[in-house]
Amino acid sequence: MADIRLVAPNRLGVVITEKDATAAAQQVAALVRERLARLTTAAVSADVQVGTRRYPAQRRQSIWIVAEMARGGLRRVTLEMLGKARALTTTTQSEVAAVLLGPAQAGLVQELAAYGADRILVLDHTYGGPVWGRAMSHTLADAIRAAQPYAVLFAATADGRDLAARIAARLQLGLTGDAIDLEINAHGQLVQLKPALGGNVMAPILSKTLPNLVTLRPGMLTPTAPDRGASATVEVLTAPATPESDITVVEVHHTEEVDAIALTQAQIVMGVGMGLGGPEHLPTVQALARSLGAVLATTRNVVHAGWLPHHIQVGLSGRAIAPRVYLAVGIRGAFNHTVGIQKAGVIIALNQNPRAAIFKAADYGVVGAWQTYLPPLVTALQPVVAAVNT
């Protein structure tokens, strides 16, 4: 492991102490409108197509990503991994290959190509049911052993972690779990960054074995702008026929997954913490969130208290999200939570404790009781965020 790096906040940290709730709300709304405009201009002018040059014929040091799907479409984390792989190829000058676990549907193939895949390896597991079993992991492991890519990237999800661990064990390779970013150092080594010591520092990890195997936390990376004219070659990985699955599916539930997917894809999110005062206030806050077009999120302490379910928890032990606007209500601001909102566009904090850590992790903060300040703040923000949700 290389030297650890301190995590430094990169937010504006502007705190408004206006006593009049309506006036404070108007100030925040004006600042957020201006900030969103600047962020949009910066995104347009920046080179968002990192790694636009492709190297489809160069399979030496190729980077593979294992695509994940939900309800027939690609999960956003797949696009995030493709974006990071494309950025890394500016150094490796190699292809990006996507492993598609499922049938080679034309729409999925085109989407993978548009977001950065030069080659698509199709491993259709549908005959074996919804869970990736031993046959899938053995087939993919054999393909990795034969091709010896530079790195294989998996999503840090239940499926991704399971598959990555199986392959690492079968190939006797190291595996870095839950990384939040990747880079390549001057020696050509893949540096895998993950939070350590409670999330206050970043630990750069170097693998001792090749290929590099990494699982990446969803919501921490940024997809490249899609190239709709791009194409990719398609190859089929044939799994051996097995008389029966090594996994028995007992029950399938999708209720929580729907809420979780909505959270990870939401443009406007309202996070609530213990500063809410009690679960009896949730209906009021949920109604305000709906009026803002926001999806609800929460912290570890709220989940532990039983106020809200774990699948909408954001942070080191929850999910990472990247909304355009994040409004933190009654959240203390421990790094365990704020690490999950690092990729948010604008962060607004509302807390009655002027010394709350959340103010340092936010762009704009308002000091005051949420019962007084949140309703006018939501009203003032509604026209500002209206265009974000369209």
Order of helices and strands: EEHEEEHEHEHEHEEEEEEHEHEHEHEEH
Biggest sheet overview: 7 strands, parallel
Write the CATH architecture name of the largest domain. Answer: 3-Layer(aba) Sandwich
Strand content: 15-25%
Strand order of the largest sheet: 9-13-8-3-6-7-14
CATH topology of the largest domain: Rossmann fold
**CATH 4th-level superfamily of the largest domain:** HUPs
Number of strands: 19
Low-confidence stretches: 46-51
The level-1 CATH class of the largest domain = Alpha Beta
Give the overall form. Answer: elongated
Question: How would you describe the overall organization of this protein?
Answer:
- With 390 residues, the chain is α/β, with parallel strands linked by helices.
- 32% of the residues lie in helices and 21% in strands.
- It contains 10 helices and 19 strands.
- The strands form 4 sheets. It has a 7-stranded parallel sheet, sandwiched between helices.
- Strand 11 and strand 12 (201-206) form a beta hairpin.
- The longest helix is centred in the N-terminal third of the chain and has 25 residues, at 21-45.
- The chain is elongated, with a radius of gyration of 22 Å.
- Mean pLDDT is 87; it is low at 46-51.
Task: Briefly characterize the structure.
32% of the residues lie in helices and 21% in strands. It is an alpha/beta fold and 390 residues long.
Defining key terms:
390 residues, Rossmann fold, 32% helix, alpha/beta, 10 helices, single chain, seven-stranded parallel beta sheet, six-stranded parallel beta sheet, 19 strands
